[in-house]
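Need residues for this backbone.
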């Protein structure tokens, strides 16, 4: 799946080149392939045994992962190993787990803030507004968690089982 991709996000041309090479390398892989940290850090020019280089590697990989989203490639981190290129059938499950769940946590935080707001000096209209927001937050939280439960999103075991395919 050669795309002749060129990363144009940074001023440093050597950095752009390394990011582009890494993106191209991954685009040549198939869905379901596993990529080791060693091979990716080598492409990016980092020694991941060095603490500072490891941080730079993680930052570079975050950019690579974001670029790959444009091509329909989603990388799932596998602790201590590297990354797994999710198959198209796994992407929706990953989105539920990663994005819907984090959105739900944001709603829970806003609910907490609204509950602990001092309402003693507020007008009745403002108090009603806060009550309405709290009701809406509760409904959104309930709906999101129900959606996550019904989606049967995958566990780590499913990811590792799929590596055997």
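Answer:
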């Amino acid at each position: 799946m050669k795309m002749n991709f060129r990363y144009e996000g940074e001023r440093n041309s050597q950095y752009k080149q390394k990011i582009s090479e890494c993106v191209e390398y991954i685009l040549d892989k198939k869905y379901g392939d596993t990529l080791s940290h060693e091979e990716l850090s080598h492409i990016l020019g980092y020694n991941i045994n060095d603490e500072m280089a490891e941080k730079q590697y993680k930052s570079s990989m975050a950019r690579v992962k974001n670029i790959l989203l444009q091509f329909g490639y989603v990388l799932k981190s596998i602790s201590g190993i590297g990354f797994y290129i999710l198959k198209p059938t796994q992407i929706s499950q990953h989105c539920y787990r990663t994005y819907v769940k984090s959105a739900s946590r944001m709603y829970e935080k806003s609910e907490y803030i609204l509950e602990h707001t001092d309402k003693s000096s507020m007008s009745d209209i403002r108090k009603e507004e806060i009550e309405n927001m709290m009701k809406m937050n509760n409904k959104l939280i309930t709906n999101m968690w129900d959606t996550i439960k019904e989606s049967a999103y995958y566990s780590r075991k499913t990811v590792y089982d799929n590596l055997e395919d």
